[in-house]
Amino acid sequence: MNRIFIFAVAVITLTLTACGNKTQGGGDNDSLQTDSLQADDATKHTEEYIRQRIDTIYKYCGGKAVQIKGKVCDRSRFTTTRFNKLCAEVDRLCNVMDNIYFDYDIWVRGQDIDPKWSYKVKSVENITDSSAVARLLIHNFSDQNVVLDLRFERGDWYVNDFILSSGKYSEKDGELAGMREYVRLMGMAEKVRDNLDEMKKLFSASGDTDEDENFMRWTPVDIDGDGNDEVYLTCGDSGNGAFYAFNGNKVQLLLVETSNMRAYICEHKNGKGYICKGGSAGGPSYYNEVVAVQNSRKVERLTMLTTGSQLDENAEPEIDAALNGKDISKAKAKAYMKALPKRKELKISDADWHSEGID
């Protein structure tokens, strides 16, 4: 992807002195007595070494290095395999969806660089064989408290995550969480874009609506709770829409809404999720449809038409029902509906809607 970083690239002498406490000063040499890239593995699990390792990283990736070289640090040089793998997917999706994720430098914490840029290692904590935490104070026009989640791999310490926090912190506030959410949303946008024509064909062929397949927006919905999203698309001004599941390279239509039959979902049960609709079918008739989803596949479909008597309110209504296209008895249909998990309304805010892949 074409990364866009906007920096004030003035060649400014910024000296970083004192191990773990780099600030403006009078020389260009790094303060390390031992280059962390050459240190013996036996010494690498101490606070002293980890501080030196961070100094080495910021020697190449800090504000001073960027100002002198006029370009940002190779992001992958000092980050973990896990971080780099996720970055690669972010980069791929940015390219195919023609948008930008990293519009700032994750090391210097900004787009522009303060001539007085500096950092200080405040503490190194929770050192184990495979992980450690370093707390930094980075000054770039203002002070930022940054937590570096470190991992020991490939013979040295690498940054696994960057988290802005001055006290207690959560992984949900880190770069990894942000990238995962971007991959989730743009991955779905890619699927919508690549399958849009087929989705429109399935919508038109369903016979459930006369509305044009003028999809305007979408939102991810994890119907079955397996961590893989299905998608809900809505049409035009009516707000009616359809639900689809993706499995591999195939798209499957789950359910189509109409103006008098809006969808709702049910809580998960036995590894399945349920999406349902119900409404008047004209006169004294009422229609229900239930689709069970498991592992992003439609595994069951119940249709049920209930017709009451207009002449006798006490008469038992007639029920015509089918499960997966095969007729079932009234008793089985009523038992199926009664056994459904608790109903949950779809709660979708304006911020949840997306148009990438459609517009």
Polypeptide structure, described:
By secondary structure, the protein is of the alpha+beta class. The protein is 22% helix and 32% strand. A seven-stranded antiparallel β-sheet has the order 15-14-13-12-11-10-16. A five-stranded antiparallel β-sheet has the order 1-2-3-4-5. Strands 6-7-8-9 form a four-stranded antiparallel β-sheet. A hairpin with a 5-residue loop joins β2 and β3. α1 (47-61) packs parallel to α2 and α3 (81-97) packs across α4 (175-205).
Sheet with most strands: strand arrangement = 15-14-13-12-11-10-16
Sheet having the most strands: 7 strands, antiparallel
Shape: elongated
Q: What integer is the average pLDDT? A: 84
- Topology pattern, helix = H, strand = E: EHHHEEEEHEEEEEEEEEEHE
**Cα radius of gyration in angstroms:** 28 Å
Helix share of residues?
10-25%
Strand percent estimate: 25-35%
Low-confidence stretches: 1-33
Question: What's the count of strands?
Answer: 16
Which structural class is indicated by helix and strand composition?
A: alpha+beta
Counting DSSP H or I runs of 4 or more residues, the number of helices is: 5
